[in-house]
Design a protein that fits this description.
This protein has 349 residues and is α/β, with parallel strands linked by helices. It has 2 domains: 142 residues, 3-Layer(aba) Sandwich (Rossmann fold), CATH 3.40.50.720; 177 residues, Dihydrodipicolinate Reductase, domain 2 (2-Layer Sandwich). It has 10 helices and 15 strands. The strands form 2 sheets. It has a 9-stranded mixed β-sheet.
Amino acid sequence: MSLPPVRFALVGYGAWGAHHAQSIASNPDAQLVAIVAPSEGSRAAAAKAHPSAQIFADYRQMLAQTKLDLVDVVTPSHTHAEIAYAVFDAGCHLLLEKPMALKIEDCREMVKRARERGVQFAIGHEFRLSSQWGEIKRIIESGVIGAPQYVLVELLRKPYRLGASGWRYDPQRVGSWVLEEPIHFFDLARWYLESAGNPIELHAYGNSRDPARPALYDNFSAMFRYANGAYAVVSQTLAAFEHHQTVKVSGTKGALWAGWSGALDRTLEPKCFLKVFDGEKLTEFELKKQSGEVFELREEIARCVKMVRGQALPAATGEDGLWSTGLCLLAEESIRQNRALAVGDLLRV
Protein backbone atom coordinates (compact mmCIF):
# COMPACT_ATOMS: atom_id res chain seq x y z
CA MET A 1 0.00 0.00 0.00
CA SER A 2 1.49 3.32 -1.06
CA LEU A 3 1.75 6.14 1.44
CA PRO A 4 0.08 9.51 0.77
CA PRO A 5 2.46 12.26 -0.36
CA VAL A 6 3.98 14.49 2.28
CA ARG A 7 2.30 17.88 2.10
CA PHE A 8 4.86 20.71 1.84
CA ALA A 9 4.47 24.46 2.07
CA LEU A 10 7.28 26.75 0.95
CA VAL A 11 7.83 30.15 2.54
CA GLY A 12 10.02 32.27 0.30
CA TYR A 13 10.27 32.26 -3.49
CA GLY A 14 13.51 33.98 -4.39
CA ALA A 15 16.32 32.50 -6.47
CA TRP A 16 17.02 29.67 -4.01
CA GLY A 17 13.38 29.30 -3.00
CA ALA A 18 12.47 28.56 -6.62
CA HIS A 19 14.98 25.69 -6.57
CA HIS A 20 13.35 24.40 -3.37
CA ALA A 21 9.94 24.53 -5.05
CA GLN A 22 11.19 22.61 -8.07
CA SER A 23 12.82 19.97 -5.87
CA ILE A 24 9.61 19.48 -3.88
CA ALA A 25 7.39 19.39 -6.97
CA SER A 26 9.63 16.85 -8.72
CA ASN A 27 9.65 14.42 -5.79
CA PRO A 28 6.93 11.77 -6.31
CA ASP A 29 6.48 11.37 -2.55
CA ALA A 30 5.97 15.09 -1.94
CA GLN A 31 3.19 17.52 -2.78
CA LEU A 32 3.77 21.26 -2.92
CA VAL A 33 0.42 22.55 -1.67
CA ALA A 34 1.26 26.16 -0.79
CA ILE A 35 3.82 28.88 -1.53
CA VAL A 36 4.25 32.12 0.39
CA ALA A 37 5.93 34.95 -1.55
CA PRO A 38 6.15 38.55 -0.34
CA SER A 39 6.04 40.47 -3.61
CA GLU A 40 3.43 40.55 -6.36
CA GLY A 41 6.09 39.61 -8.91
CA SER A 42 7.30 36.57 -6.97
CA ARG A 43 3.72 35.41 -6.36
CA ALA A 44 3.00 35.63 -10.09
CA ALA A 45 6.16 33.67 -10.88
CA ALA A 46 5.28 31.02 -8.29
CA ALA A 47 1.72 30.67 -9.60
CA LYS A 48 2.95 30.27 -13.17
CA ALA A 49 5.58 27.66 -12.27
CA HIS A 50 3.38 25.75 -9.80
CA PRO A 51 -0.29 26.20 -10.77
CA SER A 52 -1.52 23.47 -8.42
CA ALA A 53 -0.15 25.22 -5.31
CA GLN A 54 -2.07 27.83 -3.34
CA ILE A 55 -0.25 31.16 -3.35
CA PHE A 56 -0.20 33.39 -0.27
CA ALA A 57 1.29 36.75 0.64
CA ASP A 58 1.50 35.99 4.38
CA TYR A 59 2.75 32.85 6.12
CA ARG A 60 0.31 33.25 9.02
CA GLN A 61 -2.64 33.13 6.65
CA MET A 62 -1.13 30.11 4.92
CA LEU A 63 -0.68 28.23 8.22
CA ALA A 64 -4.26 29.01 9.24
CA GLN A 65 -5.86 27.94 5.97
CA THR A 66 -3.78 24.98 4.78
CA LYS A 67 -3.40 21.39 5.99
CA LEU A 68 0.33 20.65 6.03
CA ASP A 69 2.94 18.16 7.14
CA LEU A 70 6.11 20.22 6.71
CA VAL A 71 6.99 23.86 6.09
CA ASP A 72 10.16 24.70 4.16
CA VAL A 73 11.42 28.20 5.02
CA VAL A 74 13.71 29.94 2.52
CA THR A 75 13.53 33.59 3.52
CA PRO A 76 16.06 36.29 4.53
CA SER A 77 17.91 35.33 7.70
CA HIS A 78 16.39 37.95 10.01
CA THR A 79 12.88 36.49 9.48
CA HIS A 80 13.70 32.89 10.43
CA ALA A 81 12.94 32.97 14.14
CA GLU A 82 9.43 34.43 13.97
CA ILE A 83 8.40 32.12 11.13
CA ALA A 84 9.84 29.05 12.90
CA TYR A 85 7.90 29.80 16.08
CA ALA A 86 4.65 30.08 14.11
CA VAL A 87 5.34 26.79 12.27
CA PHE A 88 5.98 24.95 15.53
CA ASP A 89 2.86 26.45 17.13
CA ALA A 90 0.89 25.16 14.12
CA GLY A 91 2.16 21.64 14.86
CA CYS A 92 4.12 21.30 11.61
CA HIS A 93 7.56 19.87 10.98
CA LEU A 94 10.13 22.41 9.77
CA LEU A 95 12.97 22.55 7.26
CA LEU A 96 14.75 25.85 7.92
CA GLU A 97 17.45 27.33 5.74
CA LYS A 98 20.65 28.31 7.51
CA PRO A 99 21.38 30.28 9.57
CA MET A 100 18.72 29.35 12.11
CA ALA A 101 18.65 32.93 13.40
CA LEU A 102 20.86 35.96 13.98
CA LYS A 103 20.94 35.47 17.77
CA ILE A 104 21.96 32.35 19.69
CA GLU A 105 19.06 32.91 22.11
CA ASP A 106 16.59 32.43 19.25
CA CYS A 107 18.39 29.26 18.16
CA ARG A 108 18.06 27.80 21.66
CA GLU A 109 14.39 28.78 21.84
CA MET A 110 13.67 27.10 18.47
CA VAL A 111 15.20 23.83 19.63
CA LYS A 112 13.23 24.05 22.88
CA ARG A 113 9.89 24.74 21.15
CA ALA A 114 10.36 21.94 18.60
CA ARG A 115 10.92 19.50 21.47
CA GLU A 116 7.89 20.80 23.38
CA ARG A 117 5.64 20.55 20.29
CA GLY A 118 6.94 17.08 19.38
CA VAL A 119 7.82 18.04 15.79
CA GLN A 120 10.89 17.34 13.69
CA PHE A 121 13.27 20.23 13.08
CA ALA A 122 15.77 20.04 10.19
CA ILE A 123 18.37 22.66 9.25
CA GLY A 124 19.36 23.25 5.62
CA HIS A 125 22.92 21.94 5.86
CA GLU A 126 22.42 20.00 2.64
CA PHE A 127 26.17 19.44 2.17
CA ARG A 128 25.82 16.50 4.56
CA LEU A 129 23.78 14.74 1.89
CA SER A 130 26.29 15.35 -0.89
CA SER A 131 27.77 12.49 -2.91
CA GLN A 132 31.09 14.28 -2.36
CA TRP A 133 31.09 16.13 0.99
CA GLY A 134 28.90 13.47 2.62
CA GLU A 135 31.10 10.70 1.27
CA ILE A 136 34.04 12.25 3.12
CA LYS A 137 32.24 11.60 6.42
CA ARG A 138 31.70 7.95 5.48
CA ILE A 139 35.38 7.60 4.52
CA ILE A 140 36.45 9.05 7.88
CA GLU A 141 34.11 6.71 9.74
CA SER A 142 35.49 3.70 7.83
CA GLY A 143 38.86 4.33 9.47
CA VAL A 144 40.81 4.35 6.21
CA ILE A 145 42.68 7.55 7.14
CA GLY A 146 42.74 6.84 10.87
CA ALA A 147 41.51 9.28 13.49
CA PRO A 148 41.03 12.74 11.92
CA GLN A 149 43.44 15.36 13.23
CA TYR A 150 43.11 18.26 10.79
CA VAL A 151 40.28 19.56 8.58
CA LEU A 152 40.37 22.40 6.06
CA VAL A 153 37.19 23.65 4.37
CA GLU A 154 37.89 26.55 2.01
CA LEU A 155 35.98 28.51 -0.62
CA LEU A 156 37.18 30.96 -3.28
CA ARG A 157 34.32 32.63 -5.12
CA LYS A 158 32.83 35.73 -6.75
CA PRO A 159 30.92 38.28 -4.60
CA TYR A 160 27.47 37.45 -3.26
CA ARG A 161 24.31 38.41 -5.10
CA LEU A 162 22.38 41.28 -3.54
CA GLY A 163 19.25 39.25 -2.75
CA ALA A 164 15.72 40.67 -2.84
CA SER A 165 15.79 44.39 -1.96
CA GLY A 166 19.51 44.04 -1.22
CA TRP A 167 19.02 42.12 2.03
CA ARG A 168 22.28 40.18 1.72
CA TYR A 169 24.27 43.44 1.91
CA ASP A 170 22.30 44.77 4.91
CA PRO A 171 23.82 43.69 8.27
CA GLN A 172 20.45 44.13 9.98
CA ARG A 173 18.93 41.46 7.75
CA VAL A 174 21.82 39.16 6.79
CA GLY A 175 23.53 39.34 10.17
CA SER A 176 26.93 38.81 8.57
CA TRP A 177 28.55 37.03 5.68
CA VAL A 178 30.08 34.57 8.14
CA LEU A 179 26.50 33.31 8.57
CA GLU A 180 26.14 32.75 4.83
CA GLU A 181 28.42 30.08 3.28
CA PRO A 182 31.02 29.75 6.07
CA ILE A 183 28.25 28.39 8.29
CA HIS A 184 28.12 25.31 6.04
CA PHE A 185 31.87 24.88 6.46
CA PHE A 186 31.69 25.11 10.24
CA ASP A 187 29.01 22.41 10.12
CA LEU A 188 31.07 20.14 7.85
CA ALA A 189 34.27 20.54 9.87
CA ARG A 190 32.52 19.85 13.18
CA TRP A 191 30.75 16.85 11.60
CA TYR A 192 34.02 15.43 10.26
CA LEU A 193 35.65 15.86 13.70
CA GLU A 194 32.66 14.46 15.58
CA SER A 195 34.83 11.75 17.18
CA ALA A 196 36.90 14.47 18.90
CA GLY A 197 33.92 15.77 20.88
CA ASN A 198 33.09 19.46 20.87
CA PRO A 199 35.52 22.28 20.01
CA ILE A 200 36.97 24.20 22.94
CA GLU A 201 38.55 27.34 21.43
CA LEU A 202 38.18 29.48 18.30
CA HIS A 203 40.19 32.31 16.74
CA ALA A 204 39.03 34.16 13.62
CA TYR A 205 40.16 36.91 11.26
CA GLY A 206 38.39 38.94 8.59
CA ASN A 207 38.64 42.04 6.44
CA SER A 208 36.52 43.92 3.92
CA ARG A 209 37.21 45.59 0.59
CA ASP A 210 34.62 48.28 1.28
CA PRO A 211 35.14 50.69 4.22
CA ALA A 212 31.39 51.35 4.22
CA ARG A 213 30.68 47.77 5.34
CA PRO A 214 33.58 46.77 7.60
CA ALA A 215 31.64 44.00 9.37
CA LEU A 216 30.77 42.22 6.10
CA TYR A 217 33.99 40.33 5.50
CA ASP A 218 35.12 39.67 1.94
CA ASN A 219 37.93 37.55 3.39
CA PHE A 220 37.31 35.38 6.45
CA SER A 221 39.22 32.62 8.22
CA ALA A 222 38.71 30.81 11.52
CA MET A 223 40.55 28.07 13.35
CA PHE A 224 38.97 26.02 16.11
CA ARG A 225 40.57 23.30 18.19
CA TYR A 226 39.60 20.31 20.31
CA ALA A 227 40.80 18.96 23.63
CA ASN A 228 42.56 16.03 21.93
CA GLY A 229 44.65 18.35 19.75
CA ALA A 230 42.59 18.04 16.55
CA TYR A 231 41.73 21.31 14.84
CA ALA A 232 39.90 22.73 11.83
CA VAL A 233 40.35 25.71 9.54
CA VAL A 234 37.37 27.34 7.80
CA SER A 235 38.19 29.99 5.20
CA GLN A 236 36.42 31.99 2.49
CA THR A 237 37.11 34.81 0.08
CA LEU A 238 34.36 36.61 -1.82
CA ALA A 239 36.93 38.79 -3.59
CA ALA A 240 37.68 36.33 -6.37
CA PHE A 241 35.97 34.62 -9.32
CA GLU A 242 33.68 31.68 -10.11
CA HIS A 243 33.09 29.13 -7.32
CA HIS A 244 35.83 26.80 -6.08
CA GLN A 245 35.51 24.75 -2.87
CA THR A 246 38.19 22.56 -1.29
CA VAL A 247 38.15 20.09 1.60
CA LYS A 248 41.26 18.43 3.02
CA VAL A 249 41.37 16.02 5.96
CA SER A 250 44.43 14.35 7.44
CA GLY A 251 44.33 11.55 9.98
CA THR A 252 46.66 9.32 11.95
CA LYS A 253 47.01 6.94 8.98
CA GLY A 254 46.26 8.84 5.77
CA ALA A 255 44.55 11.83 4.21
CA LEU A 256 41.98 12.95 1.65
CA TRP A 257 41.51 15.87 -0.70
CA ALA A 258 38.34 16.96 -2.50
CA GLY A 259 37.57 19.84 -4.83
CA TRP A 260 34.53 21.31 -6.59
CA SER A 261 34.68 23.99 -9.30
CA GLY A 262 32.03 25.69 -11.39
CA ALA A 263 31.30 29.04 -12.97
CA LEU A 264 28.53 29.51 -10.36
CA ASP A 265 27.53 27.85 -7.09
CA ARG A 266 24.56 26.25 -8.88
CA THR A 267 26.48 24.98 -11.90
CA LEU A 268 24.87 21.75 -13.12
CA GLU A 269 28.05 20.29 -14.65
CA PRO A 270 30.90 21.14 -12.27
CA LYS A 271 34.38 19.68 -12.15
CA CYS A 272 34.86 17.72 -8.96
CA PHE A 273 37.11 15.06 -7.45
CA LEU A 274 37.78 13.14 -4.25
CA LYS A 275 41.19 11.54 -3.63
CA VAL A 276 41.90 9.23 -0.68
CA PHE A 277 45.33 8.17 0.63
CA ASP A 278 45.32 5.30 3.14
CA GLY A 279 48.97 5.77 4.06
CA GLU A 280 50.22 3.51 1.28
CA LYS A 281 47.93 3.78 -1.73
CA LEU A 282 46.29 6.79 -3.39
CA THR A 283 42.80 6.22 -4.84
CA GLU A 284 40.56 8.60 -6.76
CA PHE A 285 37.03 7.98 -5.53
CA GLU A 286 34.35 7.72 -8.21
CA LEU A 287 31.31 9.80 -7.24
CA LYS A 288 28.11 7.81 -7.68
CA LYS A 289 25.98 10.96 -8.12
CA GLN A 290 26.65 14.48 -9.31
CA SER A 291 27.90 16.87 -6.64
CA GLY A 292 26.50 20.37 -6.21
CA GLU A 293 23.98 22.22 -4.05
CA VAL A 294 21.15 21.85 -6.59
CA PHE A 295 21.56 18.06 -6.45
CA GLU A 296 22.00 18.05 -2.67
CA LEU A 297 18.77 20.00 -2.30
CA ARG A 298 16.88 17.17 -4.00
CA GLU A 299 18.43 14.75 -1.51
CA GLU A 300 17.43 17.06 1.34
CA ILE A 301 13.77 17.11 0.25
CA ALA A 302 13.80 13.30 -0.06
CA ARG A 303 15.27 13.07 3.45
CA CYS A 304 12.53 15.35 4.78
CA VAL A 305 9.89 13.05 3.29
CA LYS A 306 11.41 10.13 5.20
CA MET A 307 11.70 12.30 8.31
CA VAL A 308 7.99 13.14 8.28
CA ARG A 309 7.14 9.48 7.75
CA GLY A 310 9.27 8.42 10.70
CA GLN A 311 11.76 6.60 8.48
CA ALA A 312 14.80 8.85 9.10
CA LEU A 313 16.13 11.57 11.36
CA PRO A 314 17.02 15.05 10.06
CA ALA A 315 20.34 15.13 8.24
CA ALA A 316 21.19 18.16 10.38
CA THR A 317 19.15 18.75 13.54
CA GLY A 318 18.25 21.93 15.35
CA GLU A 319 21.12 21.20 17.73
CA ASP A 320 23.49 21.00 14.75
CA GLY A 321 22.16 24.31 13.50
CA LEU A 322 22.61 25.84 16.95
CA TRP A 323 26.26 24.79 16.94
CA SER A 324 27.02 26.07 13.44
CA THR A 325 25.30 29.40 14.11
CA GLY A 326 26.99 29.69 17.48
CA LEU A 327 30.45 29.09 16.03
CA CYS A 328 29.83 31.78 13.39
CA LEU A 329 28.72 34.29 16.02
CA LEU A 330 31.71 33.43 18.18
CA ALA A 331 33.99 33.92 15.16
CA GLU A 332 32.58 37.41 14.66
CA GLU A 333 33.22 38.20 18.33
CA SER A 334 36.76 36.84 18.03
CA ILE A 335 37.41 39.24 15.14
CA ARG A 336 36.02 42.16 17.13
CA GLN A 337 38.18 41.31 20.15
CA ASN A 338 41.19 40.22 18.07
CA ARG A 339 41.84 37.16 20.23
CA ALA A 340 41.02 33.50 20.69
CA LEU A 341 37.79 32.78 22.60
CA ALA A 342 36.61 29.76 24.56
CA VAL A 343 33.74 27.98 22.83
CA GLY A 344 31.89 27.06 26.01
CA ASP A 345 28.68 25.05 25.95
CA LEU A 346 26.90 26.34 22.86
CA LEU A 347 24.53 23.39 22.94
CA ARG A 348 22.91 24.47 26.19
CA VAL A 349 19.15 24.68 25.65
